[in-house]
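User: Modeling request: complex.
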Amino acid sequence: MEQEQDLDLCCQEEQVHTGALERVRELMPRDETLYDLAELFKIFGDSTRVKMLYALLEGELCVCDLASLMEVSQSAVSHQLRVLKASKLVKFRREGRTVYYSLADEHVLSILSQGMEHIMEE
Amino acid sequence: MEQEQDLDLCCQEEQVHTGALERVRELMPRDETLYDLAELFKIFGDSTRVKMLYALLEGELCVCDLASLMEVSQSAVSHQLRVLKASKLVKFRREGRTVYYSLADEHVLSILSQGMEHIMEE
DNA sequence: TGAATATATGAACAAGTGCTCATACGATAA
DNA sequence: TTATCGTATGAGCACTTGTTCATATATTCA
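Assistant: Request completed. Predicted assembly structure:
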């Protein structure tokens, strides 16, 4: 009870922002959605995975190709591909004993590009 | 030596993809850039921070407002704001003892939107 | 000055993450 | 079948991360 009150009151005496708070509360996506969104960005938040996604922008590559590019073990790449698959960021096709991975859709490029723009300025 | 060879050779006998690999190597951003990019996405990869950024899309809010919205402690919000500041995703202005935070630029919206598009389909 | 309020920060800890190592699986060829 | 190659997976571990708690800093007001 007390906690809930503390959460609703802003800075105890100043109710100045309660209007803004209500508006924000209405416009914000559901908690579950925001959680999923964070989960997605978490995937992009690892340099090995970002590197893999960038490599796949040029076209499909097999696990061994990726391992070579990343300069990490085949096992590590395989583990990360599993993560990327689970998030539907990559898809794959099997050809003999080789498995080729490629980007699942064009959102990957969009997201990478927007991020790149931010870090590039200044 | 042997390791380096293993890294350059793809799947031992199949040199089929070496052409593709060289092309990818040329077109890929520098390792340092990819690392910075991952660091940026790491910021978005936490539900508390994503929620904070979404809230700030509507306009500036003080620390206490944000704590109220996030339903976490003021201390936690303050720690996260520090992270967001360091990445130049938010800026702030002081008014008396209150500090108002707002988004640093429009890239935040772009990045959030692209991510949202991805999780929304299917 | 001293009290109160808003925010910031350091330490500590539980939970999560990405790697390596060993091994298993799946497909091909002898 | 057996051997080999490409890939996948489970266990274990070092490292990171986000929170809480306590406290410090900064601003206002009496």
